[in-house]
Every structure is written in structure tokens, then in C-alpha cells.
Amino acid sequence: MSATSPHGIKIAPADIPDVLIVETPVYTDPRGLFSEMFHAKKFAEAGFVHSFVQDNRSLSRKGVIRGLHYQRQVPQGKLVGCAYGEIFDVAVDLRRSSPTFGKWTGTTLSGENGRQMFIPEGFAHGFCALSETALVVYKCTDFFAPDDDRGIFYADPDIGVDWPVEDPVVSEKDRGLPLLSSVDPETLFD
After folding, report:
1. How far apart are CA 92 and CA 13, in angstroms?
2. What confidence tens digit (pLDDT) does each residue in 100-159 have?
3. 115-146 b/e with 16+ CB inside 10 Å = b?
4. What is the pLDDT of residues 123-137, one digit of tens each?
5. Lower Cβ count inside 10 Å, N or C end of the chain?
């Protein structure tokens, strides 16, 4: 899927084709900028037909890595954007039958570039803050299920995400996540 809508919304596959890069027009003037991050009708006209039930926001300081998170029983697709600052956003394919299983793709999202990344169900998600502070906002296709909260170690050498930060700040929980090779296959996707 690669399309530009009459409204200027551009949707293109990332390095892993099921992950999408979404760009919406950004309008600037001396006051600052304006952008529609999501408009159901306009997105549908561009071929993006996902429903969302939950919006989240996350504020991080420079060098913070969050992830790599996923839910298996209640999987979530996520439309991720950066409302303020800049992040490097990452998706890792956890679909065992996929030719890109265990591979990652990433892109820079910022408050200025209007770019978002859609990470479908079956992927783990993570990001790192590149600016002094970064406000990440994302829409989810299903609700957060605390009992289904899972993850993969952000620095798994077999996945090899090239995080653009040195000495990252990572939560104790995320530092304790398992390597992909040691995860029970039943907690991954078919």
C-alpha cells in the first residue's frame, strides 16, 4: 500500500511492508504549526481503515528507551506520533510465520515532521527520545491488558536494533525483559 490522498495524507510501507509510515500535512506560520494527526474519514479515503479505542501519551527525557512491548492475547495495533520533540520509533516483527520474523524497522518521528508510524498487531513496539523531552502520542486498536503485558529486551543482539543513543535510560522492568530466543513461542504470533 502506497498512496497519497486528495487531502495530502501519504501512506507508504516501511522496510517491513505491514508497518506503515503515515505523513499528514503540516501547516506552519509565524505562530507555529498545525497538523491533523488523525481524521477517520480522510485516513479511510487514503486506504487506512483501522479503528482505535484508546489514546495514550508518554513524556520522556533525552536518552530514554521504552520497549520493546506487545500484547499477545489482546494484541494492539498502534498509530504512533511525536507531538513534541523527536523520537526514533521501532517495530519488531513477532509473527513466527513471517519472512521478516525477528527483524526490525524504525523511523524518526517529530513534532515538526508530522510523520507517524502504524505498527500492526503481531509486532513489538519501542522508541527512544532524541530531544531533551519528547511527547509521544499513540492510538491503539485494543485496550491495554495488564495481565497480557509482554516484551522483548530492547538490546537483544539477535534483533540488533540500532538505537541512536549512548548510555540509554531504561526502566528496571524493560531491562529485565527476555531475549526473543528465550521467549515461549506460544506467547508470540502465528
Report:
1. 14
2. 999 999 999 999 898 999 999 999 999 999 999 999 999 999 999 999 999 999 999 999
3. bbbbbbbbbbbbbbbbbeebbbbbbbbbeeee
4. 999 999 999 999 999
5. C
Domain range annotation of the chain: 3-178
Q: Which residue, among 68, 67, 122, 69, has the nearest Cα to 97 in the 3D structure?
A: 122
pLDDT at 5: 64
**Residues contacting residue 31 through CB under 8 Å, at least 6 positions apart:** none
pTM: predicted TM-score of the whole model, two decimal places: 0.94
CA distance 76 to 79: 10
Per the rule left: phi > 0, alpha: psi between -120 and 50, beta: everything else, 142 is beta
User: What is the C-alpha separation between 85 and 102, in angstroms, rounded?
Assistant: 29
Average pLDDT, the chain: 95
Give domain 3-178's CATH superfamily: Jelly Rolls (2.60.120.10)
DSSP at 25:
-
Residues 6+ apart with CB under 8 A from 47: 1, 3, 5, 11
Question: Rounded CA gap, 21 and 159, in Å?
Answer: 21
Active site residues: 69, 138
E strand spans, 72-146:
78-84, 86-93, 104-110, 115-119, 123-129, 133-140
